[in-house]
Structure formats: C-alpha cells, structure tokens
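Hi W.,

Here's what went into the run:
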Amino acid sequence: MQLRIARTLRWGVGIACALAAVGGCIYLVQHGAEPMKDYSHFSYGALPEGFENYTTLRGILRGVSGFTAYGWIQLGVLALLLTPVLRVLLSLVDFLRQRDWLYAAITAAVLAVIILNSVAP
Amino acid sequence: MRRDFRIFATAMTVLSFTLILLLGAYCAGLLGSLTGLGGGVVVIPLLTLLFGVDFHYAVGAALVSSIATSSGSGSAYVREGITNVRLGMFLEIATTIGAVTGAFVAVWLNSSVIAVLFGLVLLLTAAMQQRRKSDHDGVVGSETARRLRLFGTWPQRDGTLKPYELRNVGGGFGVMYVAGILSGILGIGSGVLKVIAMDGLMKVPFKVSTTTSNFMMGVTACASAVVYVQRGNIEPGIACPVLIGVLFGALTGARLLKRLDVRLLRQVFCVVIVLVAINMIYNGIKGNF
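Here's what came out:
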C-alpha cells in the first residue's frame, strides 16, 4: 500500500510537470520575445483581461482543446493539486480494507473539507 | 508605491523572466528539501524582493511549490516507514480546516500585513532551527492518544523498530489549526509550527515529526489552493517555471540528502532567513509592498 502511494505521487507529479512543460513551450514560442508582464499589482476586484481562461475549469479546458499556453499550464497545476487528494483517497481505501473504521472516518473528513472547499463558491 | 528595493527592475522579456525564475525555483526546491523548510520559503522572497511581484501572486506560487516539494520528496519517506500516517491524517483535520479559514481571511489582508506575517514566521523558523533535536525517550503517552491509536514505531540505525508514545493531543491539534491558517494565508508549509506541535507539545521523535510534517504539507496546501486558482492568484506565467523548477530541485535535494552532511548549509541558511525576515518586516511596516 505504501508503495502504491509512493508510485501515485511520482506519477501525479510527473504528469503535472509534463503538462506544464507543454504549456510553457507554447507560452515561450508565442510570447517569449514580448516584454515581461506587470505583476507588481494585484487586486481581487480587477483581474487582468482574460482571467477566466485560467481561473475557471471551463476556461482552462477550452484553453487545452485550443492549445493555448495558459490552458495547458493550468491543467498541469490542477494535476499537481489532485496528487495529494489522490493520496488521501488511497489512504481511505487502505483504512477501509483494514477495517479501521475510526481512521476511515477521519480520512473521509479530511477529504470532505478539501472537496467542499473546492466546489463551494 | 515605491519598489526601489527590487533588483531586476528594468524591462525584461518574457523569455528571460521565465528562465531566471526557472533557475531560481530550482534552487528554491533544492534548498527547501535539503533544509526541510519547503520551497515556498525561498520562492516568496525571490518573487517579491527580486522581481517586484505582488505578494498575492507570490502566495499562489508558494502554494504550488509547497505541493511540489511535498509530493516530490515525500514519497521516499513514506516508503521507509518513518512517517506516522495515522498521526498525519488525524492532524490534517485541523490543518485543512485552518487552511480554509486562512484562505478566507487572506482576502482582507493587504500585501504589507502579509509581508510582516511572513517575516515573523521566518524569524520563528530560524529560532527553532537552533533547538536541540530530541528523540524524547521514555515518554508516557496520554489516554486520548492511546484511544486514537497514535503510538508508532520508527526504524533505528541498526534496523530494529523502536516504539514511541505521545501526549497532549489537544494542544497539538490547536497549534496545527494555527499552522493551517498561516499556510492558507502565506502559501508556505509553515513546517515550523507543525514541528512545534509534534516535537514540542506531543513529544514525537524529531525525525518522525519532520517527515510527518512534510507528508501533511501537500494536503494542507491543497485545501486552500483551489480557492486561490479561482481568485486568480495562481498566474500561469509564474506558476509554470515555479512548478517545474521546484519539482526538479526537490528531487535533486532528496537524492543529495542521503549522502550529504547539511549541518553547515542549515546554519548558513538560518542567517539568510533572518536577513530576509528583517527585510520583509521593515518594508512591510513602511508599506513598501
């Protein structure tokens, strides 16, 4: 089981890295010669133009099918975020198989906090 | 708003920004895994002090690098059986709820407050690095810990397994909640508070508390990361070089750690952390961010 967790982590991280690398290449080919963007100011109310392309799942997936740099990079970020969630999920399966109900419940609670926070607006 | 303290102030192209950040992130991942502090501690000053990037973007990048370090170097420890998975999972209830709280609070904080908070966490980290690392022999565990079956064993140099007990579950859980809040605001693993909780309060052997803390870092960061993506704090142009750089740095670090004596490096790094912390607090109080 521990081995499976370690393998999942390595795969998740590898996939995330590959996706981000694809996006990074597109990004550099298309925009490499442009001057650096101004990252010196951030405000929650006024995000840069086209922000929905990297902040919403729909925007990211549209970007992936359209081979845009932001879509692929952000898909890599999402893959990276899923790796720990998968690890918790595998632990849950492990505790259930051991009939360790207390820790199955604890693991399920951790999973619930993560998922609820992610889907709630 | 003055930003005259940043070093790369002149106009750069996207290409040179990406490549320099990639190199910097690699060093961050390397240092983060060698010192056990995680990549975010280096990524935040790199972005804010050197590139003049807004703190809110830097926190998003730190979250990405926390997950990358945790997943990149964590798999080795789980296999060796040092990590106490039960303890980690139990305390993750506190850290994930804390992280959600922190992400909620972060909206109301401006960059200067975040900078001062980050500086204070760095100072605390440097102070804790000076502590003697104890294995807490002969700790008598508490009844709560026994009921929760949190006791474990850890491998010794000679290959045998040594059992350990622990106590003060409530206190540890409370400090973990605070660690989660800080992680939700700053994006860093706040490993220092996790070690205070496990090593200082619960009397877990040092090696077990550091590896368990690393195990928890990714899951904690994950709890607030989706919110940060939705708010636009995680900007692809910054996230991409950070993700790739930190990941390879952490992998190199995990490999080097097996045969390198890092005591001197940790001492030097400690001094650097104090200097960065002073810089952050000074500029934060003066409102330069």
